[in-house]
Amino acid sequence: MYGKAFAPEYQGSLTTTLSVNSSLVDVLAAGTEQLRAAERSGCPRETARVGLAVAEAHRRLGHVADADREWKASYRAARTAGDAGAMAWALWSGGTLARQRGALTLAWRLLGFAAELGEHGGDILARGYSLAGLAETGRIQGDYEAVSALHEQLLAEARERGEARHTVWALEGIAQMHRNTGSYDTAYAMFEESAAIAAQADDRRGHAWALRGLADIVSVRDGDADRALELLAEAEVTCRTMNLMSALAYNHKMRGNVLYRAGRYAEARDIYQEALTEFRTMSEPRGEALARLGLVKSLARLGRDRDGTAADLAELACVLDRIGLRHARRMVDRARVELGITEDAEGATASPERLREAATA
Prior knowledge:
mainly alpha
């Protein structure tokens, strides 16, 4: 049995005034007010704790520079107070921001320090969330072998504590790996379980992400575009209500995927362009690259010239190699095969072996 979901990143005086479902605009307003009060009172511990919520609200709203400033200020205040747990949470926020910005090496470093500080400071949740951040960083890089066991470990720990929000996160992460390796039935079952737990625990953010995962499976496995779009529309209501800008952009990117698979290329083009604009506004390079890939494929299906498509795919391959997103990089190779683009990023004809590898990746 799982209890009601809660948001451990809303700390100090915000613990009782904000919930996991609070609008990010409300979080930012309340957090900023309490942060100023803590600064005036000269209490570094409270400054660090409420500053974390401000940093996270800025990050999730796509205010990258503000988020970067606030997590660092939270860390400095926590260090002044000698509060190892608060230091761990600030580093977790910084590491999560680094991953969002595509700085994966920095994300690994900050999240690793956060996990160590959480353990030494006796903050089980800070340790767990930081390890989850490391697992998620490896997952989005496509290094499933390295992080699958950590995902499973964190899922078991969350289930044992009855912590709904973290259970939902772990289930969705594992489900995504199964989906990306072709185990659609297993992925669907896990997304379905995460949606049920999130609904039971009133975790609307987790529920919206689970619906997105279900929509993906319904589209790719069942070919049911209408049902997939219904699920995404339901999730979008939550994203807009809570001002979940990143989740909304990924929702739109998935809507593009569904439309593309259904052969509705003009509609897919338009929604990919919308998602691309949203990701660029948030300075989120991973989402931007994925939306660009969908846009390039849609334009190719609508008659764009082969040379322009090849050039864009080559550029995307370089971007994804630079960020270190191996799974997404393989998606570019599959797109080349799908669209009949037989030249690699350097303009040389790709070998038959490479094309066969791309087609089966």
